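Bit of a strange request maybe. I'm writing a small parser for structure token strings and I need a real example to test against, not something I typed by hand. Could someone generate the tokens for this chain?
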Amino acid sequence: MLVALGCAPQDSSTATDTTSSTDATQTPADCAHGKTLTEGTLAIATDSPAYEPWFKNNDPSNGKGFESAVAYAVADQLAFDKASVKWVKQPFNTSFAPGPKHFDFDINQISITPARAKAVTFSDGYYTAAQALIALEGSPVSTVTSLADLQKYKLGAQTGTTSLTALREDVQPDSEPVVFQNTNDAKQALLNHQVDAIAADLPTAFYITAVQIPNSTIVGQFQQLSGAPEQFGMLFQRDNPLVDCVNTALANMKADGTLDAIEKKWLSDTVDVPVLQ
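Reply from user aminoacidic:
Good idea to test on real output. This should exercise your parser:
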């Protein structure tokens, strides 16, 4: 949220079912040959604006920010240099709609959920996400210490996100959460005191409170109450054979420490945020 106001719970999986299989002896580059929409080009989608800390300066092509860096590391594994990567715009709320895609994969803090996986195919997870609640400093909700204590407050999140699902299913507020078309609307509503708090993934919450709304604070973080931890996955057109190649690339990046190094560089893991239970 700055990007997608988060992406939180529901039953999620760190892998997806695909109908194709990859030869164990193949490199990701061998696997990807001939499987992109345009020969010699890797089309990667994300939303616009593209928010920090996932992308820097609203420019996915600069390689800065967690998801931009991950995308280029995957591209390198697939033997696409930076000049061969083409970025395309895909609004978050429509990325997981069924049907043909104009990109090879989309990277935009999209949580893997069974409902979405009925229409698209996901890669293995590349990031485990927690949800966070953002409030204005000094407000009554800013001192809340449990999910139950949140129920009496007016909460909000962006439409189509798992942050909204998290509010409805895990927090279960007394009144229906307020739904916003985008993160900017949600942030403005918080500033205007139209809602008491908004939900976002934790890295986004760090950025909102540190840069975008300086007089705001992270009330706390929480994971879904049941099921596997929420994972962000790269999104593909249903049954796209390229997903196997990307999964091999991600496995290589996890094994050699590349993915961990990118996370440490771009996503803060040093701030002690209280856990709401």
